[in-house]
Structures
1.
Amino acid sequence: MAATAETLAFQAETKELLRLMIHSLYTRKDIFLRELISNASDALDRLRFESLTNQDLLEGNDRFEIRLDTDRAARTLTISDSGIGMSREEIIAHIGTIAKSGTAELRDKLQEAGSTGDISELIGQFGVGFYSSFMVADRVKLVTRRAGQSAAYQWESDGSGTYEISEVEKPDRGTSITLYLKAPDTDTGIEDYTDYWRLSSIVRLHSDFINYPIIAKREREQSPTTAGEDKSAKEIVVEDSTLNSMKPIWKRSPADIKQEDYNEFYKHVSHDWTEPLKTIHFKAEGTFEYDALLYIPAKAPYDLFYVGYEPGLRLYAKRVMIMEKCEDLLPHYLRFIRGIVDAADLPLNISRQRLQQDHHITLIRKRVTRKILDTLQEMFDKDYEKYLTVWGEFGRSIKEGISADYENKDKILPLLLYQSSNDADKLTTLKDYVGRMKPSQEQIFYLTGESRGVVENSPHLEAIRDKGWEVLYMVDPVDELVLQHLNEFEGKRLKSAGKGKIETGEDEQKELKEKQEEFKPLLEFLQKRLDENVKQVRLTTRLTTSPACLVVEDHDYSPMLERVLQKGKGGGPKQRRVLELNPNHQLVTRMRERQAGNAEDPLLANAAEVVFGLAVLAEGSELPDPVRFNKAATEVLGQIV
Ligand code: ADP
Ligand code: MG
């Protein structure tokens, strides 16, 4: 056995987190116990699952339990489990390191927590519950042996920057965590965690549903049992007492469950420290039975749209966890949902692959999906404020459902909310938009772009706005994707204000046709000058105050999408635009006149550059050749001096 301990340093972010923990003003210090019990329960779940295919891991001991042992004199509390344990590598990877260290998000959150003193969000999002033990302990010692392995290890730290790791003996598999407790202090909310009743009440409050017995020693006075002794002299017996009811919460009737109980279970499965926004609990009966307990969290995890995000619900078969994150139980666009499914008739040792193809899993996914969408709709109808929170956090992923879940498209459509020209603050549904459509209006207009500011001021909306027609401002990158699967709503076509031709009205169209001949030479001239970037020059009724704008055809990528694609690997396509001119604008009529007077007028070439450049800027794109634009603009402006 290696007698020497090795001292290792925490990474910078872990160190910072521990510093915050130790000095935390977080009032509910007793949640450290919930976190350690939650980890113990996870470790037992893992062992139970792994032992299904490898009996040897049990080492002939099939007791699955969590123990709380105290030493009042030494002021220690030890939380032990007979779970899977950790190897040396696992200790270093899971206890000495934060998995998501090195991310900008973690750094941001650490900074935020440092200034506000609120660590709860930080912990929830980064899965660092273990460190909460440093809120109540000056020193923490962890001894662990992985099931099936012979070497055991001890990890010890005072949280100040380094930890020591050494090899030790440990006959029983699993993990024991000893906390060297800080003195009770009412100011900082630290209580006496060596007290049986204190522990018992914390467990009942936060960890009652844990599937394994949480056992503590209880002292009880009793009269002597041996005959002949003085009956009044009490003696103290110490006995094991199980603190939790162990009833899986999802097996209980919803009528008997308090929201607090639901919330505590949420914190256990999600590792989140904030309360969930909504709980969905149901039982499916019939030939294939299962219970589902699902949650809509209050906040989106920072990595919801990252590649590394791990979606999934916990899957149990007859109360035994068989998978921690089963992706197949949810469609990807609902990946923000947390919770569990407990199926009655799944084999315990089903493989991942078989699970994917399993008919039952498909059925569960369908039902769970419908249930979530119905719940969202109900929330929309009855508690719109709350729905707005959901939309703010998860709207982007819900929208993905339009392209991904054809079957439920009709359930998703009424859930979509958009900014609109109708109201500066309130969002609108497509249905409400249609309800407001003018008799003269045949299409649902929208414009995509980076922000409301850019879209709102776009010249493309001039004539539409003059007509009093409403425009949806689609300013989320995912909107472009959604639009590819959203051509119409309630029989009305969705039409981009920046694409194709806008049919404003018969009179205007007629007038435009009449002007065509008159402007033909100018249009041809501009085409020749701008051919590199412009595929067509035409007159339009789309504009009322601007001289010109750029559009793409109906089937082309919008400028917004083009920019997104170009930022991607290998760049995207570079499309030529259509330049549209407002034949009623003085600038355009003057150009026509000048050209009619002198087709070789050198000012015209520069004016063409400027008109094009301004239109590029108006759509939010970058000038293809700023130097050229600058020169031309200087020439044109030179005319006024
Ligand atoms: P989280 O539980 O969200 O992953 P924690 O900080 O609570 O974050 O725990 C970090 C990791 O340490 C766990 O994911 C697990 O791998 C390991 N761990 C913690 N406690 C135990 C335990 N009692 N037995 C085995 N592994 C544990
Ligand atoms: Mg944990």
2.
Amino acid sequence: MNTAEFIPKIRSEKIEEIGFTWQTPSNIALVKYWGKSDPQLPKNASISFTLNNCHTITTIDFSIQESAPCADFDLFFEGKEKEEFKPKIAGFFKRVEVYCPYILDYKMVINSENSFPHSSGIASSASGLSAIAMCLMRLEQALNPRLTEVYIIKKASFLARLGSGSASRSIEGPLVVWGKHPKIAGSSDLFGVQFPYKVHPVFQNYQDAILLVDKGEKQVSSTLGHNLMHKHPFAENRFKQANENLSKMSEILQNGQLEEFIGLVESEALTLHAMMLTSAPYFILMKPNTLEIIHKIWEFRAAENSNICFTLDAGANVHVLYPFSEKEKVNRFIESELANYCQKKQYILDAVGFGAKKG
Ligand code: DP6
């Protein structure tokens, strides 16, 4: 695997002080990543819709100092210093040090905020780490203005992946594949790539309503869940199935077969949770209201001849997916019925987006 292209060749002039602000979104996987090996390499390829409204905005101010043995940074989240978030970010900086040696020459002050409510159960690692990766790449570009935009985006995804696997899919949009796959040209285990084929118009501006079923802290982190795939009795079949599902999804996205899309997306969500149910130790992240909502969605789909479907990430919240053409009808259903199963009736209306934006 060729990671040498991500190690800077030249040690350039130093800049005294500089700052960058980037906004990067969350994403929702259609074919799921669950299981990895070191260093953050996926056991199967995955594909996600990039979101638009759920995002993180991060500013990093860099000021030059004597080169330090490890990254020196202060971290503020929504205006408050956050010591508890620091170990994860310190671990990220350690992992990317060889690819971004210039970070050791700077004191970094990181200010970050999310567009979605704090502890809403929405994974913030994808948007959070991709935003930091974008800021690092803009510093690298300032130090070496010859870097191309293509390289910057690719390396930002590469760095984000080293922080959190799914973060590699949060730099671009509207559909990103991460993980080497024979049917996806240019795909790699090292970084995410835009889905390289023409997507059917029905998937343009696809809607995602995130129903906040449980806003509490997860009992089992994604990282722990991924690790349980190492000795999982069904792991090898699951990785094979996910890669086959990505081949099918690639066809579906190009042909616009909504019925097949719904079947595959829901099966992927339930299979992800089936892996959790059958891990040792086993665990359940769905809540009773997760299942209530799934049944309500199925009833509505049949009664209204709708193309609504659901997916889940590693938690109890439900992502409701539907085409733009059904937006009004489905939004009314969410407000009048599904909101009753959400904590404090809270949900977030989102849609497919296009990735990192300058803040
Ligand atoms: C269920 O990317 O959060 O959302 O690489 O350990 O940070 P780490 O895990 P993470 O896992 C996400 C898993 C998932 C499925 C997916 O997004 O593909």
